[in-house]
Design a protein that fits this description.
With 306 residues, the protein is α/β, with parallel strands linked by helices. It has helices at 63-68, 96-110, 122-131, 158-162, 186-192, 204-209, 216-222, 255-265, 290-303, and strands at 2-5, 12-17, 22-28, 40-43, 74-78, 113-118, 136-142, 242-246, 268-271.
């Protein structure tokens, strides 16, 4: 792992990952004068970058700063070929496990650490936690994908998968051709990511400007097309504290699905309305009550001594 310290002594640029798939991360140092807590590695989901944890599109502080002010060093990662990580010549076929392996290098270098993951990085977290348990102190999954073990195997047939596109129990699956990157349009963004009452509607255009091209293979593996999703060997191997959190306006993450993922993995589960928090969708880290949700997560960490 190589780092570059800024002249002002603030966040550092970190370069880590595997030789084939290097990654970039921002490090936001814990606020001075506080008890030192467990470092937190924040990992974005598909078509995003680590910027979703640094600031919200309507100009508010992101989760990274809030966690740092609670005593945690924070590492906001860009997947290989995303954001400021080096370009990936084979981006359309970039596999989930290759991304996870690159992130695992960083986690092992700084761990033990908390993995905070979102959406398509969920399967990566379960795999990293199983293959490098010494480096993972806890996992927080924000509307996370489950391991392929509990996902139905979908047919490797575009027409058949297209008929399932509105099936929320399957995550509204899509099958993408792997000869080109996935580029989503505004209709997709508004349907799945910027749809919730808590999303800052005035900042949708700014948010959309930060959406990046994605691996088609990652999309297909996320929905376990042809049974090729990222699986784990045994959920009993994930002995660290685990938390899964879901909002009530996430079209791809119904309560029953994420609760089943939590049950399979032995994780605690929070359905936000049960905590009096309503109106959140898939992008809760940038929605207009993001600070309240971060406070909930930080409280869970500190309650667990992390």
């Amino acid at each position: 792992m190589h780092d570059v310290t800024r002249p002002d002594g603030g966040a550092r640029c970190l370069y880590s990952g595997t030789p084939e798939y290097p990654i970039y991360a921002d490090r936001i140092a814990a606020a001075p004068g506080l008890p030192r807590r467990m470092p937190v590695v924040m990992v974005h989901g598909g078509c995003h970058t680590g910027a979703c944890y640094l600031a919200t599109p309507d100009g508010r502080e992101g989760w990274a700063g809030q966690f740092a002010r609670a005593g945690h060093d924070v590492y906001a990662v860009d997947w290989p070929g995303h954001g400021r990580s080096p370009a990936c010549a084979d981006l359309p076929r970039l596999p989930t496990q290759a991304i996870a392996a690159a992130i695992r290098v960083l986690v092992e270098a700084i761990g033990p650490a908390v993995l905070l993951v979102h959406s398509a990085s969920g399967p990566m977290a379960w795999w990293i936690a199983e293959t490098a348990p010494h480096a993972v102190a806890a996992v927080i999954g924000i509307a996370p994908g489950g391991p392929a073990n509990i996902l139905p195997v979908l047919p490797d047939d575009p027409a058949a998968v297209a008929k399932l596109r509105d099936d929320a129990s399957l995550g509204c699956p899509v099958l993408m051709p792997e000869d080109r990157p996935v580029v989503v349009d505004m209709a997709f963004i508004q349907a799945f990511w910027a749809n919730a009452p808590r999303f800052p509607a005035q900042a949708v255009a700014a948010y959309a400007q930060g959406i990046v091209a994605e691996s088609a293979r990652l999309f297909n593996e996320r929905f376990n097309i042809g049974g090729r999703g990222l699986a784990i060997a045994d959920p009993a191997n994930l002995t660290m504290p685990k938390l899964i959190v879901t909002g009530d306006h996430d079209p791809r993450h119904p309560r029953a699905v994420d609760a089943a993922t939590a049950a399979y993995l032995g994780a605690e589960y929070i359905w936000l309305p049960d905590r009096g928090i309503h109106g959140n969708g898939h992008m809760m880290m940038i929605e207009n009550n993001s600070h309240a949700i971060a406070a909930l997560l930080i409280d869970w960490l500190h309650t667990n001594g992390l």
